[in-house]
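Subject: Insulin-degrading enzyme

B.,
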Amino acid sequence: MDEDLLLELENVTAQDVQQFFPQILAQCHVEVLAHSNLYKGEALEITDLVERTIKPKRLPANQAPTPRGLIWPSGSNFIYKKQLKDPGNVNHCIEYSLYAGHRYDIVMRAKLLLLGQMTDEPCFNQLRTIEQLGYNISSGASFHDIWSGYRILIESEKDCRYLEGRIENFFNIFEQMLNNMSEEEFEGHKRAMINKRLAKLKNLSSEDNRFWNHIYTDVDGATLEKLTKEDMIDFYSHYISTSSSQRSKLSVHLQAQAKAKEPSLDEKKTAPAAALKIVLTEHKIAANDQAFQARIKNASSNEAISDAVASHLTDDLIMEKEVADKALDEAKAALNVADSGFRAAPQALDVSADVKSVVDTSQPVLIEDVHAWKASMQASSAVRPVRNLEEFVEVTDKLQEKMLL
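Prediction pasted inline below.
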């Protein structure tokens, strides 16, 4: 959409803007949130001032915008690729999103918020600290209009296909963490999230957000309190787990034109060593730097370094297979030769076919025409007030007198 608007800007003149400006304010609906050191009458006077200044015609209720969201089919696996225009930029970017449902589903929203709380530190630690994929890494619950889901965003010099594989690797790691999480740790995450939702206000901006969202804040806190570990395990296995046949996923790949500088052989040997050290510390296993250096001393390629690390883990440190596999995966990630994440090559979306016919979590579908893809999606219901908002409209006698004048 932004690119479509950008193309039209070339044809827009100053006269066009001058003619359009009065039209955009000629008919509208005015909403004002007033708080802090104001009386009710003062708030009404401010609203009246806005209306008297703009002098708009009233916007009929049937013309009010009705935001809707796209419902991604269960089991879908979409990828959208776009090349960045800056020829000198070496940073790729991936936004990996998982659809969960309606934003106003109270229980779903609480689960997403809690998942964001639980994965915040592990995600950053795995993808940023251990694998060093990039400086800009964020994760958490995502809400847009009535859409709700979970997303991970990474800006990195590494290829988007590789980044997608590392994100899915993290989902597998956290699934084990969640299953093995103690009740005490789980309750700690719940309490932390509840405290965030009910935190004391720090400034007017926070107070403003609290007023707009006060209903969600209180309801989220009460709903979070009722969630159990089993609730989250079931939620994760259905909507997040890479092994789920029901989860709905879209990843956006912004691909750089330029390539980052190839690391030297010494840098290639240093990267897996740093990742390995973190994993060994995590599992309380003593490192053997002398043996490790002897293994990689004569390695001259990524594959040779990977083989040397594997031999070091199994022969020198005599690690259990599960831990050794994890450590080797981290070392390969540091070398940029780990799992790319695709079990099958992406296939172009057939816009003439029913979108449900291309749903297959193991077969990524490449979006080539965004407008056609959106047209193939089912739209959600619009947001509607529980009660008619006109029931809450009040106009004081004093203000009515001013309006008559």
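The mean pLDDT is 84.

T.
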